[in-house]
């Protein structure tokens, strides 16, 4: 077949796809959420090894957002916020067991995503979207909390973190689901070799994504794909083809495989002719887990500390928006933004009104993506940094005020758990919970992205900033209605002993006696 | 004049330039050496503010070298090494006054670049090159040490750092030279406003560069331009147009102005049609001076500590090579390289044999620039990290072994001088000089660019690495012949009281009585 004929064929395919104008008002949405990947892990954000050519190209074809944040320095609350558009303290993904603690959803957790929360796929569904999650769910693993109960049409992945291997006596291995039934367990049917770092799980998650994109494109229905692979969360893994290929050890190998997968997904969108009708947003759930470094942890670039902390290293995320023809290629936008904005932005793109019966923390980023003037609410928007239900810090413009500081306790530090290895800023990375509500520690993140040089309280600059930040904080706290805390209770009986589908596989385990107690959240 | 005629004219100009084939074998060479600019200050190396569009474009059109080093964590020795192709311990730019101290050329220094050293412009001259230095010299300010005595045909700039203002009684202000005579002094004819950060010096240094390029292109003689502006060395400055324009304070303003200047120089090469006959190499003299941060200091990205130290932050430098048509655009090369290679590479490009009566530390990088297979000597080359005449550390491949560690003394630290603010790696960023020669501290810089996780001495990896690094160190030390230390003696009488040309300007000051003593090098 000559090139000319090929071109003609392409033109026909192209036109048959773009014929339906309804699709243009309902663009496909792909959110790629990495696990524990840091701001500094991408070449385009300064990783010295420069091993992310596909992500760097994605940035060159799209928009880089250097001031993008998660909603929490830990996985579950961050993911709950992405899908609800609300801070964890509102959607219930927090604990009140102790002051200012991070909490998540290990398999002994009793709670999960409340039925009162409205998730993004539930809303998209109204406009005919088909919704799929691939990878880690993390909003509760008990039956009522699973993705297909909360708006997703399809799911391939696991409800919890891929920790293990477990013995199936005191702890079951984490199940992997295909839609509403388990199809195996990590370390059993879905192997991860902790000695060699080998696993082909990213390839499986890639195939699930590509197949879904193919199917939805063929059926000409708009889709929402939430792609959440977990290869960069310890224990990190990569498939054989990538093992040992990076300059950065196993972690770098995992990053290379994910980068390659991103490249394949973008290529597929192009070859299917739907790239001009699809927003792809790449980010991560929280900062790199420095505690797992160097072989199993990433980089937060110039930022202070990492996962679990409310310093920049814990919550500033790599972020790239890609949508050829809609987003101007090669742009950098300094708008302060966060994962909750992806909720509101997706609704705006799909032409769906956001729920008006609750406070949403996400804002509509479409003016930013289009490159037009951002409205005032967006320009002046603060970023809130929480641990549990305590507001630890606030960013407004270039300034960040810390009202509470804490890295972790001396007790944990003595055990070797260090969220700021090699970093110690006196009075800032404190090992006691230090209150500064009367006189917050303020940094200028432009001059000092590493939060190393507090602005003197004696300066006019300090007083000016404080007088602008204080009313923002007061307004936020006055209107805050905390949700019911879902992450307080743990029970060995709720673990993944007998997930739906276990009977068919002969993989049901005996459920032990219920023994509910307060979960212990040391950080 | 119509566009067509313009195009014809351009073609004529173009052809008259490229007619002389002799020029092709003698490419122009431009080395842009920044002052205290850090690896992390460029957008392409991860600066969050992304305010270096011209340098980022230069990288996109050329080659990025993420593993490029200086020869010393301080200005004068680093610059002496660039121009001699030899380590400071060989070319004499070091001190033996105390153990493992950095030294430089303040205006009370007695020594300078030895007549026995052969400088790059002296060699290039043999092939008809016209050589100019614009900006900071820093190889000694006494008459016998000045640039025009060591191979440069032209100079516009200063012999020392732009510290000041001085009172002209106990200390004179630093002179600015045009060739062999002073034309004024910093803070007097050449203003720097320390209250506002304003100075138009970078604009002057830019104009000097552009004028030189214009003249040499017109005369069709190959040229070497060593462009060494000092705006990012504290006290940092920028001209009015750039002040307050960056997100990063005065330092960022200075970076933006330098970035703009780089863009103008590259544009000029293109518009003159000599871009395909000119190697431009951008780098810095040492790591960012964190001690001057945040308003007057830069960023070393993910690396440990900064200027004055032999950690990566002190000696890893931003580096971009640009030569359209010769260097493949958009490439990243991980070759370990350093400023001394610029000496040897320049000679190779000009077809000049390097001196064979002395040991050169620089290697020929032309295979790297061309993108061809690097010879073994280049592939296996070590990087040496010195303080004074002490070998502090060695890098071989991805591994770095520290034989001595020291950030600075407790005494200096108590004065508030901190080369590692916000960074403290136990046993590594030591405040005593710690010897580890029997059992070096070893890092894997791929997994751990921040030098935060020493490899356990109990591992096979440690033993393997040590067995490879040890013979490299022994061989280096066996053949090392230190030069005469030029940075031991200081004398108030040698300061810039009455530089050549001062009579014409009526700016000669009275020379005080000679009082030579050992210089005090606290770091």
From TrEMBL, chains A, B:
<dbReference type="GO" id="GO:0043890">
    <property type="term" value="F:N-acetylgalactosamine-6-sulfatase activity"/>
</dbReference>
<dbReference type="Pfam" id="PF00884">
    <property type="entry name" value="Sulfatase"/>
</dbReference>
<dbReference type="Pfam" id="PF14707">
    <property type="entry name" value="Sulfatase_C"/>
</dbReference>
<keyword id="KW-0479">Metal-binding</keyword>
<feature type="binding site">
    <location>
        <position position="36"/>
    </location>
    <ligand>
        <name>Ca(2+)</name>
    </ligand>
</feature>
<protein>
    <recommendedName>
        <fullName>N-acetylgalactosamine-6-sulfatase</fullName>
        <ecNumber>3.1.6.4</ecNumber>
    </recommendedName>
</protein>
<keyword id="KW-0458">Lysosome</keyword>
<feature type="signal peptide">
    <location>
        <begin position="1"/>
        <end position="18"/>
    </location>
</feature>
<keyword id="KW-0732">Signal</keyword>
<feature type="domain" description="Sulfatase N-terminal">
    <location>
        <begin position="27"/>
        <end position="352"/>
    </location>
</feature>
<keyword id="KW-0325">Glycoprotein</keyword>
<dbReference type="GO" id="GO:0004065">
    <property type="term" value="F:arylsulfatase activity"/>
</dbReference>
<feature type="active site" description="Nucleophile">
    <location>
        <position position="75"/>
    </location>
</feature>
<dbReference type="InterPro" id="IPR000917">
    <property type="entry name" value="Sulfatase_N"/>
</dbReference>
<keyword id="KW-1015">Disulfide bond</keyword>
<dbReference type="InterPro" id="IPR017850">
    <property type="entry name" value="Alkaline_phosphatase_core_sf"/>
</dbReference>
<dbReference type="InterPro" id="IPR024607">
    <property type="entry name" value="Sulfatase_CS"/>
</dbReference>
<dbReference type="GO" id="GO:0046872">
    <property type="term" value="F:metal ion binding"/>
</dbReference>
<dbReference type="GO" id="GO:0005764">
    <property type="term" value="C:lysosome"/>
</dbReference>
<dbReference type="InterPro" id="IPR035626">
    <property type="entry name" value="GALNS"/>
</dbReference>
<feature type="binding site" description="via 3-oxoalanine">
    <location>
        <position position="75"/>
    </location>
    <ligand>
        <name>Ca(2+)</name>
    </ligand>
</feature>
<keyword id="KW-0106">Calcium</keyword>
<feature type="binding site">
    <location>
        <position position="286"/>
    </location>
    <ligand>
        <name>Ca(2+)</name>
    </ligand>
</feature>
<comment type="similarity">
    <text>Belongs to the sulfatase family.</text>
</comment>
<feature type="active site">
    <location>
        <position position="138"/>
    </location>
</feature>
<feature type="modified residue" description="3-oxoalanine (Cys)">
    <location>
        <position position="75"/>
    </location>
</feature>
<feature type="binding site">
    <location>
        <position position="35"/>
    </location>
    <ligand>
        <name>Ca(2+)</name>
    </ligand>
</feature>
<comment type="subunit">
    <text>Homodimer.</text>
</comment>
<dbReference type="InterPro" id="IPR050738">
    <property type="entry name" value="Sulfatase"/>
</dbReference>
<feature type="glycosylation site" description="N-linked (GlcNAc...) asparagine">
    <location>
        <position position="200"/>
    </location>
</feature>
<feature type="binding site">
    <location>
        <position position="285"/>
    </location>
    <ligand>
        <name>Ca(2+)</name>
    </ligand>
</feature>
<keyword id="KW-0378">Hydrolase</keyword>
């Amino acid at each position: 077949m000559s090139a000319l004929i090929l071109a003609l064929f392409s033109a026909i395919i192209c036109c048959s796809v773009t014929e339906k104008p309804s699709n243009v008002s309902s663009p496909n949405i792909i959110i790629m959420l990495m696990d524990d990947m840091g701001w500094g892990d991408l070449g385009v954000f300064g990783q010295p090894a420069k091993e992310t050519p596909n992500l760097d190209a994605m940035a060159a074809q799209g928009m880089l957002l250097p001031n993008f944040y998660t909603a929490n320095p830990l996985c579950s609350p961050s993911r709950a916020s992405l899908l609800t558009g609300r801070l964890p303290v509102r959607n219930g993904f927090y604990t009140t067991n102790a002051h200012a603690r991070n909490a998540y959803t290990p398999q002994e957790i009793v709670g999960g995503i409340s039925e009162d929360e409205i998730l993004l796929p539930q809303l998209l569904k109204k406009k005919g979207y088909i919704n799929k999650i691939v990878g880690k769910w993390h909003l509760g693993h008990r039956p009522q909390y699973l993705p297909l109960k909360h708006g997703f049409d399809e799911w391939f992945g696991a409800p919890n973190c891929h920790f293990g291997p477990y013995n199936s006596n005191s702890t079951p291995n984490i199940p992997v689901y295909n839609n509403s039934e388990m199809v195996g367990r990590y370390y059993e049917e879905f192997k991860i070799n902790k000695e060699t770092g080998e696993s082909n799980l990213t390839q499986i998650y890639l195939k699930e994504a590509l197949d879904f994109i193919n199917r939805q494109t063929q059926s000409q229905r708009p889709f929402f794909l939430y792609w959440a692979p977990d290869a960069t969360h310890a224990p990190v893994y990569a498939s054989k083809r990538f093992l040992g290929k990076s300059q950065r050890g196993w972690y770098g190998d995992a990053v290379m495989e994910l980068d390659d997968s991103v490249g394949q997904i973008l290529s597929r969108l192009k070859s299917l002719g739907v790239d001009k009708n699809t927003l792809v947003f790449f980010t991560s759930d929280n900062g790199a887990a420095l505690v797992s470094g160097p072989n199993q942890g990433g980089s937060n670039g110039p930022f202070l500390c990492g996962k679990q902390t409310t310093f920049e290293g814990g919550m500033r995320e790599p972020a790239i928006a890609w949508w050829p023809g809609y987003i101007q290629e090669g742009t950098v936008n300094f708008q302060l933004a966060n994962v909750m904005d992806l909720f509101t932005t997706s609704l705006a793109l799909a032409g769906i009104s956001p729920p008006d019966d609750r406070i949403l923390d996400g804002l509509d980023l479409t003016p930013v993506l289009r490159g037009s003037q951002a409205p005032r609410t967006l320009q002046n928007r603060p970023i809130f940094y929480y641990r549990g239900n305590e507001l630890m810090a606030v960013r407004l413009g270039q300034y960040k005020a810390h009202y509470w500081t804490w890295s972790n306790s001396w007790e944990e530090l003595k055990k070797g758990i260090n969220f700021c290895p090699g970093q110690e800023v006196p009075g800032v990375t404190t090992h006691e919970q230090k209150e500064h509500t009367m006189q917050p520690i303020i940094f200028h993140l432009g001059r000092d992205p590493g939060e190393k040089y507090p602005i003197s309280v004696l300066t006019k600059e300090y007083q000016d900033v404080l007088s602008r930040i204080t009313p923002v904080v007061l307004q936020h706290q006055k209107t805050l209605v905390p949700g019911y805390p879902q992450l307080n209770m743990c029970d060995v009986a709720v673990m993944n002993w007998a997930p739906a589908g276990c009977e068919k596989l002969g993989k049901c385990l005996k459920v032990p006696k219920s023994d509910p107690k307060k979960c212990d959240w040391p950080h």
